[in-house]
UniProtKB/TrEMBL annotation:
GO cellular component, one term: nucleus
Homology family: Belongs to the heat shock protein 70 family.
Official protein name in the record: YALI0E13255p
Region called Disordered, residue ranges: 666-685
Keyword entries, A-Z: ATP-binding, Nucleotide-binding
UniProt xrefs under Pfam families: HSP70 (PF00012)
Compositionally biased spans, kind Basic and acidic residues: 666-676
Domain of life: Eukaryota
GO-annotated biological processes: protein folding
Alphabetized Gene3D superfamilies for the sequence: 1.20.1270.10, 3.30.30.30, 3.30.420.40, Actin, Chain A, domain 4, Substrate Binding Domain Of DNAk, Chain A, domain 1
């Protein structure tokens, strides 16, 4: 049995939650953290994923890739992708036309697309889930920002497939949080008049506002808006730049010219930001930041707010846009739920309070609510789990038009099928008359309203399989699926047939009489048509190649880890035997055995720190067995003696217990004899 999981795919770190045993459990990783850094690193031997990438980040800057959420699914020349370079320490560049990064892996320059890098990261998440749930994991719901377009959503699904996961749904992150909130509050939700809740999510790199209408067992996103460049990292960057200017004047050093120094300043800026959330001032100290210079300064909360003033001035815009799209005013809102790790910044709280002019609510878990909602959504898709039904619809941010080449007699060659402000999942059916194969193309209707760099093209489908020379009635089922992806779900030739149907409102037939009917014409499916898609996702061949590459890298990582384990086991054996040979094992080995073992341990230890520093796994095993062939004999004698002494103690204890039991039984017999009056009485003269 597999366990459904939900992932809040964050730009800085991610949360994974499992639906198991009737609960939604956020899972801890290998170092017991409930969040995992969204980082992928590379070394001479293997890859670093998640926590290990974070712990090696400062010493491995050029080979550590972050901001995966911001680069996946983007074109290599997308200005938004290129702008991420200031936040990413590795080299970003186009790879096969897609956003990617160049790193040194196993001593060679390698280039990976953002989809591949995300697939590597998702594999780490998968292994964490398998370890924590002690079950197989295959289905996942991945929560992404609402501004993810078609290309980005397809890239997420491809990345999941590379990791061996079936992405049952790509959910908007705030919508997932709303679903989790609604499921938890379901018993308190109204049946008729909806409860209006505004969710405000201030994350690491972006800020989203969604207005959601709740009823018992369902919710609908009425409107949503966002700012892609308002988040915790933007505050960090402001702080880092503030101190960079101070250090340039005070210490005559420019930390921005040194990648390692800049990374350390950025990390310290993040820590200072968190301290200022609870304190009015905080120190800023870094030892030997660069050129052996120690730097020291401080910042007050007022100074941070002054530096962030241009950022904070934009905070009202997504709120106003979301409310406008939803057609509601702040006073109509029943709740304002604030989530996201950066929502704790005091100045952000203050601005939001002023914008809404209402109290803010923090009942939802700021970091984990999205992952919990995603896990519930995944469980809804699982055939092996029973969950309470909870229906939800999302808001379509961008209008989409389907077009085709018209034939003679057709006046229409395109149709806005899924308008902005509509809800999805949604299905529409269009009818075209065709005698031969034809193409249908989907594109975003209004390129001017799209974020810079967004590909207007969505997909091109070729429809074929018509029979006969006369134009057939071709019906196309167009769909915006639950993941927000646009498809042609079905295509078929229909024919009109006459059928008999009961007359609506007619008097019921008498017993044994005929039911009144009428003849009506209906369209019915006659022949399925073939649909071939040419979209923005990976082809089946490309996907298979990347799956095979990922699997080979997994095996290489496993070999490196196993080799390191065998090396550590050999090293530990030497340390253990050296100490115990002069102590508890001293009486269990002859002088010749001790001398032989000492000599071998000394030689192998010298080898370990010399030629054996980077040996093969089999060699470490052979060296271990060479020592164990002598050491385990000595250890066996010691263990045999210990067991002999233990058995003697057990036998002695059992004998004592038996003696004590016999004494107790004798005492009981004596007491019984006295009670029966069978007692010897002295002679009385």
């Amino acid at each position: 049995m597999t366990t459904p999981i939900g992932l809040d795919f964050g730009n800085y770190h991610s949360y994974v939650c499992a639906a198991q045993r009737g609960n939604l459990d956020v899972l801890a990783n290998e170092v017991s953290n409930r969040s995992t850094p969204s980082l992928v690193g590379f070394s001479f031997k293997n890859r670093y994923l998640g926590e290990t990438a974070k712990s090696n980040e400062v010493s491995n800057l050029k080979n550590t890739v972050g901001s995966l959420q911001r680069i996946i699914g983007r074109a290599g020349d997308d200005p938004e992708f290129l702008a991420q370079q200031k936040f990413v320490s590795s080299k970003l560049l186009p790879v096969d036309g897609q956003a990617g990064a160049e790193v040194t892996y196993k001593g060679e320059k390698r280039q990976f697309t953002a989809t591949q890098l995300t697939g590597m990261y998702l594999n780490k998440i998968k292994q964490t889930a398998i370890t924590e749930t002690k079950s197989q994991v295959s289905d996942i719901c991945i929560a992404v920002p609402v501004w993810f377009n078609e290309q980005q959503r397809l890239a997420i699904k491809d990345a999941a497939a590379i990791a061996g996961l079936n992405c049952v749904r790509v959910a908007n992150d705030v919508t997932a949080a709303a679903v989790g909130w609604g499921v938890f509050k379901n018993n308190d939700l109204p049946v008729d008049k909806p409860k209006l809740v505004c969710f405000v999510d201030v994350g690491h790199s972006s800020y989203t506002v969604s207005v959601v209408a709740f009823k018992k067992g369902e919710c609908k996103v009425l409107g949503t808006a966002y700012d892609q460049h308002f988040g915790g990292r933007d505050f960090d960057a402001l702080i880092a730049q503030h101190f960079a200017e101070i250090f340039k004047k005070k210490y005559k050093i420019d930390v921005n010219t040194n990648p390692k120094a800049a990374a350390r300043v950025m990390a310290q800026s993040e820590r200072l930001k968190k301290i200022l959330s609870a304190n009015s001032s905080a120190p800023f100290n870094i030892e030997s930041v660069m050129n052996d210079v120690d730097v020291s300064s401080s910042m007050t909360r007022e100074e941070l707010e002054e530096a962030a003033a241009p950022l904070l001035k934009r905070a009202h815009i997504p709120v106003e846009e979301a409310l406008k799209r939803a057609g509601v005013t702040p006073d109509q809102l029943d709740n304002i739920e604030v989530i996201g790790g950066s929502s704790r910044i005091p100045s952000v709280k203050e601005v939001l309070s002023k914008v809404f002019n209402k109290p803010l609510s923090y009942t939802a878990n700021a970091e984990e609510s999205t992952a919990r909602g995603a896990a519930f959504i995944c469980a809804m898709h699982s055939p092996t789990m029973r969950v309470r039904p909870f229906k939800f619809e999302d808001y379509n941010l961008n209008s989409v038009t389907y077009s085709w080449n018209p034939v003679e007699g057709e006046d229409v060659s395109e149709l806005e099928v899924f308008p902005e402000g509509g809800y999805y999942p949604n299905t529409k059916v269009i009818t075209l008359h065709r005698a031969a194969a034809f193409d249908v193309t989907a594109r975003y209707t209004n390129p001017d309203t799209l974020p810079e760099g967004t590909n207007q093209f969505i997909c091109k489908w070729t429809i074929s399989g018509m029979q006969g020379k006369e134009p057939a009635v071709c019906k196309l089922k167009l769909r915006q699926d639950p993941s927000g992806i646009f498809t042609i779900e079905d295509a078929y030739v229909a024919e009109e047939v006459e059928v008999e149907e009961p007359i609506e409102g007619a008097e019921p037939a008498e017993e044994g009489g005929e039911i009144p009917t009428q003849t009506v014409k209906k369209w019915v499916k006659k022949t399925d048509l073939k649909i071939e898609a040419q979209g923005l996702g990976l082809s089946q061949k490309q996907l298979q190649e990347q799956i095979e590459l990922e699997n080979s890298m997994i095996m290489e990582d496993k070999l490196v880890a196993d080799t390191e384990d065998r090396k550590n086991a050999l090293e530990e054996y030497i340390y253990e035997m050296r100490g115990k040979l002069e102590d508890i094992y001293a009486d269990f080995a002859s002088d010749a055995e001790k001398a032989n073992l000492r000599e071998k341990m000394e030689k192998i230890e010298d080898w370990l720190y010399g030629a054996g520093e980077d040996a093969k796994k089999a060699l470490y095993i052979a060296k271990y067995e060479e020592l164990a062939s002598i050491g385990n004999l000595i250890k066996g004698r010691y263990n045999a003696k210990q067991e002999e002494e233990r058995q003697a103690k057990v036998a002695k204890k059992e004998a004592a217990n038996q003696a004590k039991l016999a004494e107790m039984m004798a005492a009981k017999r004596k007491e019984k004899k006295d009670a029966d009056g069978d007692v010897e009485v002295p002679d009385v003269e």
